[in-house]
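User: Round two. Same drill as before: sequence, then structure, for each protein.

Assistant: Same drill it is. First protein:
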Amino acid sequence: MSTKPLHKYRLPVILFLLAAALTYCVQPPDYPDEPVIEFVGLSQNVMEQTTFGTDSVLITFNFTDGDGDLGFNDTSASIFIVDGRDSFQKPSYRIPYVEQQGAGNGISGTIGIVIPTTCCIYPVSSGIPPCDTSNNAPQAIDTVFYLISIKDRAGNRSNQIATAPITLVCRK
């Protein structure tokens, strides 16, 4: 019977445990094939209404996509934004083409989009059109929020998220 010191077995055991840990760490993520998005934040929560769009807000959200097929090679829209006050569709944005990578195509990341300021919407009874910046505006502020979703190349639409409220300054 051999009586080898136990410290000779320490290195192979450590290497085995390290290899097992690394194998576990590089498993591809298990995301659904449909994109999933989650609101992160706004760069500011107050914007000034202007007719020339000189103010804007950066909206940030996280995404995951199980098959990694985000973005198009052409100008197809992949980010859709709706004004939550009146369901008006804002101009769409596009995610740059993301090349699929091997068998484990799940991807995740963060997207930031800059939305220019929008108009205050006044009650119809006031007779004042949206975007009136004169002192005749019936209200000093308005509040807007946006509904956002994305679409992947397979046509899968994500969930829809709502931003936090943004205060619009209608008149100074």
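Second protein:
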Amino acid sequence: MPVSRRLAHEIYRLAWPVLIAQLAVMAYAVIDTLMAGRYGTDDLAAVGIGASIYFSVFVALMGVLLAVSPTVAQLYGAGRHGEIGEQVRQAMWLTLALAVLSIFVFRYPEPLLALSRASPAVADKVRAYLAVSAWGLPAGLAFRLFAGYTTAVSRPRVMMVLNVLGLALKVPLNWIFVFGNLGAPEMGAVGCALSTVLVNWIVCILSWLWCGLSPDYRRHATFARWSWPRWADQRRLVALGLPIGMTFLVDVTAFTFMAIFVARLGAVNSAAHQIAANVAAVMFMLPLAMGNAAGVLVGQAIGARDFARARATGVTGIALALMLAGASGSVLVLGARGVAAFYTPDAGVRTVAAMLLMLVAGYHLLDALQVVTVNVLRGYKRVVVPLLVNAAGLWGVGLAGGYVLGLTDVVNLPALGLATPLGVPGFWVAAIAGMLVSAVGIALYFLVVSARERALRA
């Protein structure tokens, strides 16, 4: 099926504000890392560990709330605008339940903290960081609900503006609370958490005020009346959202545990892996934004009962993502040494990182295929099979295979002329193999589902 220029334009129009919003959120972590690093080594370590725990929990819970996006997109495409407000109100109750769960997890983080094996001084700072962060996560979840809702009705620019505003507030608030300026207490790592809490609540309040006051949302009647939880709706949202949240958790933990295992190979390998992982995360933002856009447009097409357009939109989104990933991956291969040098002056780390960045380019191409196809399938409300395929690929092949290739001599690599174990490159080779399984498996599932839906509705 040829790529449609019109559909490509629609995907681009919806994707670029999402991309800017995502990059703004990523910048939060960069700012925290830079400022905590200037404050003290223990505080930098606490921010690194605390942010990893926070992000893992937040992404999993946020994924559950993403059930609202295909639900609203299909209603929007069907022209059933009056039902959208009720679904958003029901999702607000789900947000409240998840917020309570998140506060409990962050107030009692010992099971997660034990994985880090941090020193007592750093562990105390992490506990304080998470105790403060707990009160900002409910606002973060509520804003993500708004983001999913507003993107599903093709109005992502307000989300972009609010995320950029949050980034503009994050810098001065960090300066105040991390270093104790303008009469504020000097809080170090905890100041990073406090500034994020304040930003989350400011952005959350502004987003829902905008929703209530803007005429763009009036016909959805989101605040027209009070709604108690309707258990049938809650079950549908959870049944759709839980596999999405688990899929995010699989993605995140595949990287998290890779970093933990690579740490056994020493500081040079660990630092090089961190550079590679950071570059991969930044590059991932573009196909993720395109996947979000394509998934929304697919959902709207399905709501309109136009299954041919839904399939064409999915194919177009996948083709665009692969073309852009191929181009950006080629640039990375050509500039791998320069990128590594930008991150570190250490020659040993640069050498290993440059080699890993070559592998990141291949990983990124498959990652783009996987993330766009997963989002397109969410437009169809097909989420269980992608979860199972991702778990098999990213955990079963990628993570387990990385452990075997990187840290053991189980595989007879000397017969192939390779040293055993492979070390940190072994983890990335296995990650590529795992992503290949996930991407190809999910893409084939999309082709089967979309062809069947189109044939049944023809």
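Residues 1-229 form one domain.

User: Perfect.
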